[in-house]
Design goal:
Helix content is 12%, strand content 38%. By secondary structure, it is mostly beta strands.
């Protein structure tokens, strides 16, 4: 899984990072590993407790990194 995870990240554009989250944008229409549809953004939680404020309605798919951190794939409606 580590190789697949690293390969996925190599296709994404890093956008923002802070103490709680890393954000990547899917600029090449890569398929979501959970639902196989293209996703818009990938959020990787870096802390055990993280809060998200969503500005617009969207569907979310969730999985984990090889180290167990939550990965949230956003799908705009």
């Amino acid at each position: 899984m580590t190789t697949q995870f690293e390969e996925l990240l190599s296709f994404l554009t890093p956008r923002h990072e802070n103490a709680a989250l890393k954000t990547y944008q899917n600029t090449t229409a890569i398929a979501c590993p959970s639902c196989d549809n293209p996703f818009h953004n990938l959020l990787i939680c870096k802390k055990d407790l993280t809060s998200l404020n969503l500005d617009e309605p969207m569907n979310l798919c969730i999985t984990t990194t090889p180290s167990g951190s939550p990965m949230i794939f956003t799908h705009k409606q």
